Structure formats: structure tokens, C-alpha cells
Fold this protein.
Amino acid sequence: MRALFRLVPVLALLTACEQLGIEDPAKVAAAKEAEGKAIGSACRHAMRAIEDCYTLNPKANKAAVYTGWREMDEYMRENKLEGVAPVVPKAEPKKPKADEEEEPAPKKSAKTASH
């Protein structure tokens, strides 16, 4: 009976590994896969090309993103669904304006101009 009471705290600690910051690698991998599939399917539903999806989500698992994109594509084709146009415009590289390219020359004061 005493051995049972000694094992209870140990078992309690082992079952709470996630609370201690110890994560199961299989659970982490499954979560990343599920997240990648969700990203891919959302991209397809938003009528984004798979390349745009990769660019917008560089940290996502590309294989999972592709799988989600492909599954959503098949689903939409089978059910004759139209995609939804994304509300957020595509990000374009910022180009400096013509006025901002050249810095204006510093104005000379009257005293420095005469010296």
C-alpha cells in the first residue's frame, strides 16, 4: 500500500508533462501538419495560387500546405463551389517615390553663403 502512495505523485507529474513545458514531438508534428493543411485550404478557397500561399506563409510546412490546397481544390470542384476573393490586397514591394529618392540639399544661411 505504501508503494502505491509513493507512485501517485510520480504519476501525477508524468501526466502533467505538457504543463512543465515538455511536449510530445508526435503531437507537435501533427499540429504543424494540421496547421499547414488549414493554411493551404484557406489559400485555395481565397483563390490564391499555391506559390502565393508559400510566399505568404514561409514558416509553414510546404508539403502540408500543398496537401490542404489540393484537398480543397478537389472539394471545390466536386461541389462546384466558387472561391472567395481575398479582402487583403497582395503585398507589393515598396518603391521609393520620386520625391523621396533624392534628399534635398541643405539650405545655406546668409552668413555661410557670404563667407
